[in-house]
């Protein structure tokens, strides 16, 4: 007879490595979570041919499904899985979607725009109820906290942060350095500054015609002779971070590094940091997490990038919330 505390972890193909790290994080002291398997096949027309291997093993268990929505082509098949799993009489469902990809399109500034963050939240909210009720959706550093209200009553969003992982890295590798924390705008400061001790630096974007110029506003005096870390939730083209680097160095920063939870980098825009132009200031270290696994895998071992693993953090969330 299965223990009501037993969990099974299923993952999409791109998250296989992170799934393994979650299992390994349990150590020998806890074996409440085991790795399951899904066969991610395709028919001749390209549509998904899916199978939960040993489906009987998930019945009467708490299921965890680890997703990756960075690639639009794979969203449909992953939705199909999380819609199907509750129908096998599981006790509960926890969906882990480290990166919520439409999060930057969360509001309408003019008529005709579509807030696709709400659309994706509705799709996730269509998951059937389980024996224990609504499913949980764990998301790291969602772009706007108010997006939690886009989800329906069939799911409960749990908004977590990777900032503690970065803070731990600072204490391990940079404990003996004179460090300052900077944010690229006031929005990032509002989101994250309470997770750091002391005063922080806030950069400001001002418009000069069609150009946006980044300057250092509050806390400029903290730059002088310090290693400054720019902190944000995500990076796409990287242009703002490069401009922040330039502005911080003008204020006397001797070294500039960065941390972002989600390394999105469309169209290989990460090359701005691995192959910077001579006119662009360099980054000493660029910390990212493996929330976007295909990008993280590409950047692993490429200077200045260092990938911080989410496995232990996710395991702790599951362990803290287990029934």
Strand content: 25-35%
What letter string, H or E per element, gives the SSE order?
Answer: EHEEEEHEHEEHEHEEEHEHEHEH
Write out the strand line-up for the largest beta sheet, numbering strands in chain order.
11-10-9-12-13-14-15
Here the CATH topology of the largest domain equals: Rossmann fold
Question: What does this entry look like structurally?
Answer:
The chain is of the alpha/beta class and 323 residues long. The protein folds into 2 domains: 7-161 and 311-321, Rossmann fold, CATH 3.40.50; 163-290, Rossmann fold, CATH 3.40.50.2020. The protein is 25% helix and 26% strand. The protein has 9 helices and 15 strands. The strands form 3 sheets. The protein has a 7-stranded mixed beta sheet with strand order 11-10-9-12-13-14-15. Helix 1 packs across helix 9. The chain starts with 6 loop residues before the first strand and ends with a helix. The relative contact order is 0.13.
Helix-strand blueprint:
Blueprint: E1 7-11, H1 16-25, E2 33-35, E3 38-42, E4 48-52, E5 62-66, H2 75-84, E6 92-96, H3 116-125, E7 135-140, E8 155-160, H4 163-173, E9 179-183, H5 186-192, E10 201-208, E11 211-216, E12 227-235, H6 239-250, E13 255-263, H7 271-274, E14 286-289, H8 293-299, E15 305-308, H9 311-321
